[in-house]
Amino acid sequence: MARLTAEQWEQARADYEVRGISLGDVARTYGVATSSVSRRARAEGWTQGRLQDLAARKVAAVKEMAEVETQTQDLPLRFQHTLQSVVQERLQAEGLLASLDVALAAKAITLAHQATSAADIETLSRARKNLAPAQQAPAQQTTVTVNQQAQAGAALMTPRDVLEDIRKGAALRAWDEHANPADS
Q1: CA gap 120, 168 in Å, rounded
Q2: pLDDT tens digits for 141-156?
Q3: pLDDT of 32 strictly over 70
């Protein structure tokens, strides 16, 4: 039987508590004795399926957010900007804006890691513009797709470039420059 690393034990516990799989299935998945998994679970206080409710609530929230975003995209641009302002004002009033910014930055980093094509970069660029439309005056907004930039001979940002800009703290500026080259 194999010896598991700390990371593997952590993943095994997550499978048990979040996915709700049995200790026997955890043992089979990780190639260890069921008694070893059982002993560890008892010692560390593992609870089967403890976080399944949280996972279900998160799935429901993501689905709801996707529906809201779809409805928002159907609105005229001026309404989208006003709606975004109202949301920001309410979150700020509730003291949630700072934590929302942190969560969005973390999500942007995750998505940038997963971006592998020009279409992915274009999607991230559009998402970035939708998250902060108040930073630009509506009359100055110009939408240029990644394909249009490529046809014009502009250099495309690779996922590695995006990650480097995020690390340097210049991600928002970089997204704006690539999403709106006419404004630069």
Answers
A1: 21
A2: 445 454 554 454 444 5
A3: yes
Whole-angstrom Cα Rg for the chain? 22
Asked if residues 173 and 138 have their Cβ atoms less than 8 Å apart, the reply is: no
Side chain identity at residue 89, one-letter code: E
| Both structure tokens of 38 | 């059982």
Q: What does the alpha-carbon distance between residue 141 and residue 179 come to, in Å, rounded to a whole number? A: 10
Convert 106-168 into a string of H (helix), E (strand) and C (coil). Answer: HHHHHHHHHCCCHHHHHHHHHHHHHHCHHHCCHHHCCCCCHHHHHHCCCCCCCHHHHHHHHHH
CA–CA gap between residue 36 and residue 31 (Å, rounded) = 11
Q: What percent of the chain has pLDDT over 70?
A: 58
Q: Report the interhelical angle of 118-131 vs 171-179 (nearest 10°).
A: 110
Instruction: Give the C-alpha separation, 25 to 31, whole Å.
Output: 10
Q: CA 141, 78, 151 angle in degrees (round to 5)?
A: 30
Task: Provide the 3-class DSSP secondary structure of residue 45.
Answer: coil
In this structure, what token pair is assigned to residue 82? 């006003």
- Give helix 23-30 / helix 6-14 axis angle, nearest 10°: 140
Among 2, 6, 48, residue whose Cα is nearest residue 25: 48
Q: What are the tokens at 155?
A: 């250099």
